[in-house]
Amino acid sequence: QVQLVESGGGLVQAGGSLRLSCAASGRTLSAYTMAWFRQVPGKEREFVASITRNGGRSYYQDSVKGRFTISRDNAKNTVYLQMNSLKPEDTGDYCCARARTTAWATPAAIYEYEYWGQGTQVTVSS
How far is Cα 65 from Cα 88, in angstroms, rounded to an integer? Predict the structure, then answer.
């Protein structure tokens, strides 16, 4: 069983930065694509970013390109999301997710991910 625990969320003013962490226990993450999704009440969960198992490739939602950076430290079994130049529309509950298999995972496809964390709230004030 895999447990994912996010941290690093909080309240920040527009233009500020936050760094989210996703720590895994139970099994190593190193063989799997990892991703971050976010959700706000009344809306569907949306893809933010993903990173391949060796960190060689990363993918982003268009609205966060150039502002967010996903990274991973497989030795620490942890994935990060550095968020800069935050905007009020970035507000949401951010969850990390582990891919279902070790094969290629379509980055934004929710069905590709099997394990999810509980989420960490990010609130950006204007």
Answer: 16
- Cα 76 to Cα 96: distance, rounded to the nearest angstrom: 15
Listed in sequence order, the DSSP H helices in the chain are none
- What does the alpha-carbon distance between residue 124 and residue 71 come to, in Å, rounded to a whole number? 22
Question: Do the Cβ atoms of 67 and 77 come closer than 8 Å?
Answer: no
CA dist., res. 64 & res. 68, Å (int): 6
pLDDT digits 0-9 by tens, 1-46: 899 999 999 999 999 999 999 999 888 889 999 999 999 989 999 9
Instruction: Please list the residues that pair with 98 across neighbouring strands.
Output: 34, 115
Question: Distances from the Cα of 82 to the Cαs of 55, 67, 73, in angstroms?
Answer: 15, 8, 13
